[in-house]
Write a structure and sequence with these properties.
By secondary structure, the chain is an alpha+beta fold. It is built from four helices and eleven strands, in the order βββαββββββαβαβα. Helix 1 packs across helix 4. The longest helix has 16 residues. Bound molecules: zinc ion (2 copies). The site of one zinc ion has 9 residues, from loops.
């Protein structure tokens, strides 16, 4: 362990696969993030819709690193960033249109958390394990392909508490703003948003199978 006290804030890279969209995350650590694998069908449909089923694990899981909005900054390639919603009320799922790398999911600007699929941190030799520690658990196992991973179905109290406490702390410490994906001025998305048409949604779901 290296002591980070009394030093300048440490940060790590955040980027799309082709490198056009780039950014930074400050103070990455196990304590600053909550890492879960999500097996829900929406995450799988999204990966197919953006042409990146390769980000899914062999059971269809997306490895998501939940971080405070203010910890994440996009520094380059803003003109490549897009958002896809699977429906009018769906999560905002931001991604890099250049290469399809998912950049972060958000319910909206009012909930101070961004869920970033780990691939956006696994650049320049970085690994999510080294930055954020191991996966804390898995959720929505009923959406997994084949046998759901152990403990991934139903409500997992400790995993949920861990996430709720982190988000509450980020809210209390003002880490909801600035937000990498929403405007501080009018709270609207900073990037173009597309709502998936019912036809494309059905197509993406078929591809999941
Ligand atoms: Zn790219
Ligand atoms: Zn999901």
């Amino acid at each position: 362990m290296t002591a980070r006290k009394n030093t300048a804030r440490h940060s790590a890279s955040f980027a799309c696969q082709c490198g056009q969209v780039r950014g930074r995350i400050v103070d990455p650590s196990r304590d600053s993030a909550n890492r879960v694998v999500c097996y829900c069908r929406d995450c799988q449909a999204f990966a197919h819709a953006i042409g990146r089923p390769d980000i899914l694990d062999d059971k269809g899981g997306t490895d998501v690193v939940q971080v405070a909005p203010a910890a994440l900054t996009i520094t380059d390639g803003q003109d490549r960033v897009r958002s896809l919603r699977l429906s009018e009320k769906g999560l905002y799922r931001f991604y890099a249109s250049c290469c399809g790398t998912p950049l972060g999911n958000a319910v909206g600007p009012a909930i101070p958390v961004v869920g970033v699929p780990r691939q956006a941190f696994e650049v320049e030799g970085q690994t999510a394990d080294a930055l954020f520690g191991p996966v804390a658990g898995a959720v929505h196992g009923q959406g997994a392909k084949g046998e759901p991973p152990p403990g991934s179905k139903g409500i997992q109290f400790w995993l949920l508490m861990r996430a709720v406490l982190k988000v509450a702390r980020w809210r209390l410490t003002g880490q909801g703003w600035p937000h990498p994906f929403f405007s501080s001025a009018d709270r609207k998305p900073l990037f173009p948003v597309e709502v998936l048409s019912p036809e494309r949604r059905a197509e993406s779901r078929r591809q999941e199978m």
